[in-house]
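>> received
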Amino acid sequence: MTGNNGNKMDLKSKNEITTLGALKKSGYQPRSIKQEIRENLIHKIKNGESVFEGVVGYDTTVIPDVERALLAKHNILLLGLRGQAKTRIARQMTALLDEYMPVVAGSEINDDPLDPISRFSKDLIAEKGDDTPVEWVHRSARFVEKLATPDVTVADLIGDIDPIKAATLKLPYSDERVIHFGLLPRAHRSIFVINELPDLQPRIQVGLFNILQEGDVQIRGFKMRLPLDIQFLFTANPEDYTNRGSIVTPLKDRIGSQILTHYPRDIEDAKKITKQEARLNENRPEIKVPETIFNLIERVGFIARDSDMVDENSGVSARMPISGYENIISAVERRMFKNNETSSTVRLADVYAMIPAITGKIELVYEGEQEGPYQVAVDLIGEAIKEEFKTYVPDPAEAFDGDPHFVELRAWFSTGHIVELENDVNDKDFERALNEVPYLDEIVFDYIDQPQDRIFWKEFILHALSEYNVLNKEVWDGHMNFNDLLANMLDDLDE
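>> returned
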């Protein structure tokens, strides 16, 4: 820990400083939490240190805004759709606090020994003077987080009279010592986060006015001033403004900086987030994941955010591709366990295992509801396959009609050949089925640079052809058939 006088206090010093007198001799001087955060942030910026580890895609947008707000000693509102790392940013702000903070021993509200604000600490210091015991609080304990819900009361946040305390101490209700402090007083000299602020009832939001502007609170009409020192950080979702509530204007006016968050701007950032956040079993079998699988997973999210079937006001959380990736790995594990295999590669068909993650994390507009969430999810995956295919075959229409290998492959299917792939079949039988299809090897080596996962790319080509309506794809009971589109249409006419 470093005080504002530049005097360093290490763990040894902390263990030695146990009284107010020793604290005074150390040269410690009080400072506000916002000044503390500002000084520590300046130190990190000058030394090129990162404050918000694991927050991807915000290096030139959100993070600079947050740092500027902290340098300005502002309370902050992070405004953005779900799954945009708002809570992660809030929790990592503790890295900007001193490692240890001195408090009056026994204080409920983290009283600074040299600047106490509670009756308890003032009386104790008046009684014991320099012998007043001092305790040290680690920065991890200086973070208070509250989810705003409609049932939150003023008593929860600020405090109320405690009849049991009054009876125990034999004090009248007019004595401030009978007060039970709420979350805000207990967060004195700490970071206080209120998530989903619009869900807080307006009358409760009004209760925050004084603490934000004047830095004090009143409890049950007591004529007492409690000058709390708190770094506030609020989070909110724009969707909440219409669906559940809003932030009252005077409260917004008292929040120094409103910072807009956003979803990843490109596929590469999105992949980093998914790989970083996915919770995979450490003891899972050996599973190889082609990079194209990650591309497809993220493309589904990007396409969904622009889809006419998905409510854009609700957003598509970054948790969707994370859950989708976890589902895909689980699908491969399940197949491996059934076939007693020790290693395998993700197949393109495994991508459809992410459908439950899609349907559970997107809000559909009326047209989407009519289409049905399952079909919308299938269509999103199909569009992702088409987009990924175009990164290898930029002009599919020209390739399908002009590339001799594609032409010969289509001719092979037109003679009545059918390729049947079973989801849970073992890798050897799966590979055998794909190797029986002619011209796929030539197409893969013509268009895919360094195709190490040859079987994966063969399957990828078949799925892409079906999405571009060159082939017909039929799915049922864990099976997938690829056949000639025209022949299938004629069969339907015969029926």
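>> The first helix runs from residue 11 to 16.
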